[in-house]
Design a protein that fits this description.
Distance between the termini: 10 Å
Largest sheet: 5 strands, mixed, barrel
Structural class: alpha+beta
Strand order of the largest sheet: 9-11-12-14-13
Strand content: 25-35%
Shape: globular
């Protein structure tokens, strides 16, 4: 499922689901993943649910681990874009459970733009789905998508490394991906070439074990992790502190 596709095989001309019309029904479009030849079709363009693109024929499905195969629940009409602050949202995800939740949320009470029926994106999966709904050079509340999510599309934006508040789309490194003595877990990204390594550092053993077991049961699946990424002192290796299970999620097909 995707919120945008390409009209041409060379992937030069984009089409967003919210710009699709009834005339586009039945037309084959191209998956945003250039390594995936899934045949994408517009769905719900005239229905009650939000319009989206889907590979609806079994013989023309996505390749393994294509991010656009996964369910995407982002609906722009349900969230307040003006009230969303990415850095504050990640800070909120990093709060320990004994802190007051929403301490770092955006200043929604300081603006008259907020629609009382809508809320800004809060969870890592909500933010991830939003980022996957747009091209990495697009913006969401004036922040470039690729500066929020490191994935295959946006990797070129990080020639010198990954620093600051980001969500990482990666996979567990091959072999032993954890260190029980140091309470660390290692993932690699982007998933196409695994150029960068990311160390998740835990203070609590219980939280470490919970994350380790989650990843162990999903070794071949995509893992997303949010944090403030800092240089480790080793080339192309970065780390963040993990204080809350909300900082991580498994992307299931």
């Amino acid at each position: 499922m995707a919120m945008y596709v390409y009209k041409d095989k060379e992937r030069n001309e984009k089409l967003y689901a919210n710009n699709a019309s009834k005339e586009d029904k039945g037309i084959r479009f191209y998956c945003p993943n250039p390594k995936c030849d899934a045949h994408m079709y517009i769905c719900s363009v005239d229905g009650f649910s939000s319009a989206h693109f889907k590979a609806k024929y079994k013989q023309y499905q996505h390749v393994a681990n294509c991010p656009f195969h996964f369910s995407n629940g982002f609906n722009p009409n349900e969230h307040d874009e003006d009230a969303f602050n990415f850095e504050n949202a990640v800070k909120n995800l990093m709060l320990t459970n004994n802190h007051i939740e929403r301490k770092y949320t955006s200043n929604i009470h300081d603006t008259n733009k907020v629609n009382a029926t809508k809320k800004p994106l809060r969870t890592i999966r909500q933010i991830y789905d939003m980022c996957k709904s747009f091209v990495c050079t697009d913006e969401y509340n004036h922040v470039t998508i690729g500066q929020m999510l490191l994935d295959n599309r946006s990797a070129y934006m990080y020639p010198k490394g990954v620093f600051g508040y980001r969500i990482i789309e990666g996979m567990a490194i091959r072999g032993r991906f954890y260190d029980s003595d140091k309470l660390e877990i290692k993932i690699a990204a982007p998933i196409t070439d695994l150029t960068y390594k990311f160390i998740l550092k835990f203070d609590e053993e219980a939280l470490f074990k919970q994350a380790r077991n989650m990843i162990f049961a999903n070794r071949e699946k995509i893992i997303i992790a949010a944090g403030e990424w800092k240089p480790s002192g080793r080339f192309n290796v970065f780390y963040t502190d993990v204080k809350n299970k909300k900082q991580m999620s498994v992307i299931n097909q």
